[in-house]
Specification:
4-stranded antiparallel β-sheet, mainly beta, single chain, 11 strands, elongated, about 60% strand
């Protein structure tokens, strides 16, 4: 069983910062990609940022230059530092990991429960 536990969401004023954390636990053999998605009311879930095991990152255009994704492989944890927050960043943020639970098994996607981020104007 694998679990992703997110923390760090909350309410912040525009221009402020928040840091999200997501720790993966359970029967984990290896983790390929860790990522953050977000879903605003009435919108589809969309990729915010992703990072692979080597540290290569990818960002959506809407957060480039403001958000930074990082990971601690020893702790199976991914972080999202969010700076210069805007009201349009308000959403539920989900942690996602593509990982293997055994050496002979295929990678699967796992999701966290989500954490609310609200940016007031």
């Amino acid at each position: 069983q694998v679990q992703l536990a997110e923390s760090g969401g909350g309410l912040v004023q525009a221009g402020g910062s928040l840091r999200l954390s997501c720790a993966a636990s359970g029967s984990i053999f290896s983790i390929n990609t860790m990522a953050w998605y977000r879903q605003a009311p009435g919108k589809e879930r969309a990729l915010v940022a992703a990072i692979i095991s080597t540290g290569v990152t990818n960002y959506s255009d809407s957060v480039k230059g403001r958000f930074t994704i990082s990971r601690d492989n020893a702790k199976n944890t991914v972080y999202l530092q969010m700076d210069s927050l805007k009201p349009e960043d308000t959403a539920v943020y989900y942690c996602q990991a593509t990982l293997k639970t055994g050496i002979l098994l295929r990678p699967r996607d796992y999701w966290g429960q989500g954490t609310q981020v609200t940016v007031s104007s």
